[in-house]
């Protein structure tokens, strides 16, 4: 089965298709009763039907779940990105860029954050209040998780229709090729998933992960208040809604994504995370090693970043671009693989509005002239669907 069809099968999985498979013992075929995949002009739709798959041509199971990349000696065809040797590489700069550094204790922190969001869509935050020891301990939990045998991690495999658990990059559904990455998403308490991973001693792992999330949430609340103040938005009710606490658990319903990028025998052929913008208000990233993260600059192309080890990388997400009416930009970024011997780790905390919230540009007068909205308002849940249908280009789909 070629990689394009695998891609559509993956997309169908995200569309919650269900398959009941029976095996013909005298045949190399498997009969399946499921949704038939109809491929037309680059789109995938489904309808009920029956068919046969030749099992001799089926992809390995690893194509439908994170492949155990630690066991491969060469890059499998499913993970080779041919275009990386062509146009993409031509526009990759050799110079390393240092994005603005903002000291959270600086008296001018408001202006520094606003200027960085306007000019770069991203900045490094130091003296942010997240203890180094807590960050290191949380990172160690992530390392222990990804070091588990593949069979153990599969017990906490992400279920279609949900976001939490062991998973491939969510970007996979937009591409024909797989990424050199395995991930684990934590939303709220990780206790249910961690019980599957560490049945007898899950609690210490849960406690550390929850403590880290609460610290990040407190920092995110401070940042959004400063950002709204810079934009001249005085809607305290909106700030409260963005600081939503799930009444059932008493905890924020936000996402912490753990990313692992294993060493690769041929780094130039693969990509860790394909180019994308974040579907969030903003994202707070801890990167364990300096190499790999790049941002797209219209003039200079892809620019490798050199983040400080004591900083969190804060980048503007799509919802903040909408709310700011384009004043802040959700910058495209990607992760390249540079290591042949060591695993690279990162932890991304996505601060986004609750799913029921309606997000629209705040067109307050920034000077004497009243702004005109350049984006349509949208329900948060609906935006995820819009962005998926637009192959990741959700902002363009809302442009008036």
UniProtKB/TrEMBL annotation:
Residues 251-353 form the Fe2OG dioxygenase domain. It holds the Pfam family DIOX_N. It comes from the Eukaryota. Keywords: Hydrolase, Iron, Metal-binding, Oxidoreductase. GO terms for molecular function: metal ion binding; oxidoreductase activity. Belongs to the iron/ascorbate-dependent oxidoreductase family. This is Gibberellin 3-beta-dioxygenase 1.
């Amino acid at each position: 089965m070629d990689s394009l069809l695998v891609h559509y099968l993956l997309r169908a999985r995200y569309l919650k298709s269900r398959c009941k498979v029976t095996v013909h013992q005298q045949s190399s075929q498997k009969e399946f009763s499921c949704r038939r995949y109809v491929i037309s002009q680059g789109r995938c739709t489904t309808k009920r039907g029956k068919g046969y798959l030749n099992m001799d041509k089926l992809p390995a199971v690893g194509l439908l779940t994170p492949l155990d990349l630690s066991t491969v000696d060469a890059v499998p065809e499913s993970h080779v990105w041919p275009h990386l040797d062509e146009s993409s590489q031509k526009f990759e700069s050799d110079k390393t860029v240092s994005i603005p550094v903002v000291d959270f204790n600086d008296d001018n922190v408001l202006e520094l954050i606003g200027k960085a969001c306007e000019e770069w869509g991203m900045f490094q935050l130091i003296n942010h209040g997240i203890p180094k020891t807590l960050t290191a301990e949380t990172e160690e939990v992530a390392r222990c998780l990804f070091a588990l045998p593949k069979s153990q991690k599969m017990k906490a495999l992400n279920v279609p229709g949900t976001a939490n658990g062991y998973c491939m990059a969510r970007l996979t559904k937009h591409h024909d090729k797989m990424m050199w990455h395995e991930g684990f998403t934590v939303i709220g308490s990780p206790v249910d998933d961690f019980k599957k991973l560490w049945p007898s001693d899950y609690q210490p792992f849960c406690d550390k992960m929850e403590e880290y999330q609460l610290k990040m949430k407190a920092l995110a609340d401070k940042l959004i208040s400063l950002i709204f103040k810079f934009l001249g938005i005085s809607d305290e009710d909106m700030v409260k809604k963005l600081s939503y606490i799930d009444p059932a658990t008493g905890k924020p319903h936000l996402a912490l994504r753990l990313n692992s990028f294993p060493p690769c025998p041929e780094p130039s052929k693969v990509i860790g995370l394909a180019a994308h913008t974040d579907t969030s208000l903003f994202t707070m990233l801890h990167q364990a090693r300096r190499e790999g993260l790049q941002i797209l600059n219209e003039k200079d192309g892809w620019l490798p970043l050199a983040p400080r080890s004591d900083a969190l990388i804060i980048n503007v997400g799509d919802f903040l671009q909408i709310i700011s009416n384009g004043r802040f930009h959700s910058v495209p970024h990607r992760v390249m693989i540079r290591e042949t011997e060591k695993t690279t780790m990162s932890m991304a905390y996505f601060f986004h509005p609750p799913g029921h919230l309606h997000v629209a540009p705040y067109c307050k007068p920034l000077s004497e002239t009243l702004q005109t909205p350049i984006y349509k308002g949208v329900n948060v849940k609906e935006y995820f669907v819009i962005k998926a249908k637009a192959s990741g280009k959700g902002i363009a789909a809302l442009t008036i």
